[in-house]
Amino acid sequence: MRLTNAVNAMALAMCLAGGMWPGQIAMLKLDSIVRPLSPLMRSLNDDLGDQLSPIRVDALPPGETDLSLARVRYLSGAEIADQPIDGPRVIILVSGELNVRPALPGAVAYRESAVDMALPLAPSAEFTVEIGTTVVIPAGIPVQLRNASDTDAEWLQFQIETPPTVCPCGEDRSRIESEILSSRTLPNAIPLPATLEISRRLLLPTEEVPAAAPGSVQLVGSVAEDSGSLKDEGDGSTRNQGTSPIEIVVVAISGAPDSETQRQSTPAAYHMTSPPLGERL
C-alpha cells in the first residue's frame, strides 16, 4: 500500500489521544513495567522476541469500537493538536524525531536506552520521541504532535476509539501522510478491564502469525512499507508469502471474561483510566 495524504479515513482516525485525569489512579509497577521496543529483530519462534509487558486498560469506548494500526508520517514542520478520544493510543517511532506535548498527566514513554524504566510525560511540557521509544497515551488527553526536525518523522500508531463521524481538528494536514495497515470494527464494547499486548518481531518467509486467542482481537502490520508480502490468511492468521523477512508489529487486546478475576490475575504494568465522557474537555 502507498502512503496517502491524510485527507482520507485516516484523517478521522488521527483525531485522537488518551489519558488519565488529575485525581485518578496510575499504577506503575517497576517489576512488571512496559519494555520499550528494541530495533533488534527476532523470529516469532524465538522466545526472546521484543514484547511489551501486558498493559491493563480500564477506559475504552462504551459501545461500537474501532481498532486500527497505521503507519503515520509527519513531514518536516508538520504540527497538529489532536483532540482526546475514548480509548488509548500507542506511538512507536521508527524514523526521525517527534515532539509530543500532552495537556494532562497520564502519558508515559519507554525509551530503548532505559529498559524497564517508565518516564511519565509532564503535562504541557514537550517531550522529544526518538527512534526506539514507545509512547502510551491513555484515553482522554489532548496531545500536540510536532515534527520540528529537518527530516520526516515516521511511526506506527495503534489506537482504539468510537468510530469517528466528523474530524473535530480543523488543522492543515497537508504535511501529514498515513497508511492503515490493519483495522477492525467491533459491534460491541470490549469488556473491562482489558489487556493490551504489543510485540515487534521478524517474520521469516512462509512464517505465520497465528490467529488471536478466543476473546482477543489482533492487528498485524509491517514496520517498513510492504510490497504485498504480508497476507491475511482469512482465518485470523497472517503469513509472510514473500522471499524476504519482514519486521512486523503485532497488537492484541483481550477483554475480561470475568472482571474481578482479571483484575487479580493481570499484571498492572499500566493502569489506564479516564473520566466519564461528560467530564472531558
Taking all Cα atoms into account, the compactness measure Rg is: 17 Å
**Element-level helix/strand string:** EHEEEEEEEEEEEEEEEEEEEHE
Shape assignment: globular
The CATH topology: Jelly Rolls
Largest sheet: 8 strands, antiparallel
The CATH C-level name is Mainly Beta
Describe the structure.
There is one protein chain. This protein is mainly beta and 281 residues long. The chain has a single domain (4-279), classed as Jelly Rolls (Sandwich). The protein is 4% helix and 37% strand. The protein starts with a strand and ends in a 9-residue tail after the last strand.
Provide key terms for this protein.
eight-stranded antiparallel β-sheet, Jelly Rolls, disordered C terminus, six-stranded mixed β-sheet, disordered N terminus, mainly beta, 281 residues, 37% strand, globular
Short description:
This protein is mainly beta and 281 residues long.
Topology:
Elements: E1 4-5, H1 9-13, E2 50-51, E3 55-57, E4 65-74, E5 79-82, E6 89-95, E7 98-102, E8 108-110, E9 119-120, E10 127-129, E11 134-137, E12 143-146, E13 153-161, E14 176-186, E15 194-203, E16 208-209, E17 216-222, E18 230-232, E19 238-240, E20 246-254, H2 259-265, E21 271-272
Parallel strand pairs: 3-21
Antiparallel strand pairs: 1-14, 2-15, 3-15, 4-13, 4-14, 5-12, 6-11, 6-13, 7-10, 7-12, 8-9, 8-11, 15-20, 16-19, 17-20, 18-19
